[in-house]
Structures are given as C-alpha cells and as structure tokens.
Amino acid sequence: MNHSLRSVANVLAYIGVILVAASLIVSSIFQGYQFSFILSRIASLISYILLIISSFMYAKSRRSVVYLIVWLVAVVLIVVSYFI
After folding, report:
1. Running DSSP on this structure, what letter comes out for residue 63?
2. Which letter does DSSP use for residue 83 in this model?
3. What residue ranges do the domains of the chain occupy?
4. Residue-wise pLDDT tens for the chain (84 aa)?
5. At a CB cut-off of 8 Å and minimum separation 6, what does 74 contact?
6. If DSSP codes are grouped into helix, strand and coil, which group holds residue 64?
7. How far apart are the C-alpha atoms of 50 and 53, rounded to whole Å?
8. How many CB atoms lie within 10 A of CB 71?
9. Is 32 left (phi over 0), alpha (psi -120 to 50) or beta?
10. Which residues of 9-48 are buried (b: 16+ CB within 10 A; e: fewer)?
11. Is residue 62 helix, strand or coil?
12. Per-residue DSSP letters for 2-50?
C-alpha cells in the first residue's frame, strides 16, 4: 500500500474508533439492553478488532502520548460497551 494511502487509512481508522466508542456509549445509555442477532455481533466484533488494530498504527505513528491515551480510552469504551 502506498505510504500516503496508508496514512489516510490510519487517520480514518483512528477517527472511526473514537466514533464507534461514542456511538456505543450513546446507544447503551438511551436504548437500554436489546437482544441482537449473533451474526451481527460477530461481524461487529471483527470490524471493531480490525479498526482498533489499524487505528493503533496511526496513534503510535504520532509519537505523542496524547494520541495513545485517547486511543486507549476509546478502545476501553468500545470493549466495555460491546459486553454491556
């Protein structure tokens, strides 16, 4: 993959992981507990894992602890929200 294309993908993954964390928190607060289909849960889990791995590369490349802290908080929110 081209270096600039990889950079854009990493930025989008970083932003995406923050948006996923925020949307999971908002949906759990306002909708309560809902049953979901097992296939959608597996698909969500796989997409979250790929998004988290990709976004880590962007956060790590910034060489600032702030990016890693924001990434870590977002990942924790995703994991906690996923299992609530």
Report:
1. T
2. H
3. 3-83
4. 456 767 777 787 788 777 777 776 766 666 655 534 444 566 677 778 878 888 888 898 888 999 999 999 999 998 888 887
5. 17, 18, 20, 21, 55
6. coil
7. 5
8. 21
9. left
10. bbeebbebbbebbeebeeeeeeeeeeeeeeeeeeeeeeeb
11. coil
12. -HHHHHHHHHHHHHHHHHHHHHHHHHHHHH------HHHHHHHHHHHHH
Rounded distance between C-alpha atoms, residue 14 and residue 2, angstroms: 18
Per-residue CA distances from 60 to 1, 26, 35, 79 (Å): 18, 27, 36, 20
Pair 21, 77: CB distance under 8 Å? yes
Residue 52, CB-side half-sphere exposure with 13 Å CA sphere:
15
Question: Do residues 59 and 14 lie in contact, with contact meaning Cβ atoms separated by under 8 Å?
Answer: yes
Q: Are 81 and 30 in contact (CB under 8 A)?
A: no
d(CA 45, CA 56): 16
The one-letter code for the residue type at 75 is V
Residue type, 36: S
